[in-house]
């Protein structure tokens, strides 16, 4: 995934960290859902926009499952050495999202 900083017009960082330029794809979410228990399957049956293809964004995801996905991904990528021990994936806060 491609990550970018969020900055104001002068280049001053607005968020502590980087933000993905893409939403989580269905195929990425499926990897998580297939390995974890108690994941709500509503996302598998979502229809309409943006579409059901594997590269379309995963939709109809609860906050709880989104939070769990990011915890799972953090643990997975730390164990593989993809991210550092102090790095983590998280949801944007409402204030960060507004920026």
Characteristics of this structure?
single chain; 99 residues; alpha+beta; two-stranded antiparallel sheet; 32% helix; 13% strand; globular
Distance between the termini: 21 Å
Shape: globular
How is the biggest beta sheet arranged? 2 strands, antiparallel
Order of helices and strands: EEHHH
Would you kindly provide a written description of the structure presented here, covering whatever features stand out?
- This protein is α+β, with helices and mostly antiparallel strands and 99 residues long.
- The chain has one domain.
- It has 3 helices and 2 strands.
- It has helices at 26-35, 63-79, 94-98, and strands spanning 3-7, 13-20.
- Strands 1-2 form a two-stranded antiparallel ribbon.
- The longest helix has 17 residues, at 63-79.
- It is globular, with a radius of gyration of 15 Å.
- The model has no long low-confidence stretch (mean pLDDT 87).
């Amino acid at each position: 995934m491609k990550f970018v900083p969020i900055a104001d017009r002068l280049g001053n960082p607005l968020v502590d960290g980087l933000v993905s330029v893409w939403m989580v794809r269905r195929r990425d979410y499926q990897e998580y859902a297939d390995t974890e228990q108690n994941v709500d399957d509503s996302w598998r049956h979502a229809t309409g926009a943006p579409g059901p293809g594997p590269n379309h964004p995963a939709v109809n995801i609860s906050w709880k499952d989104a939070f769990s996905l990011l915890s799972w991904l953090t643990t997975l990528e730390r164990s593989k050495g993809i991210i550092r021990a102090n790095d983590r994936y998280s949801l944007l806060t409402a204030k960060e999202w507004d920026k």
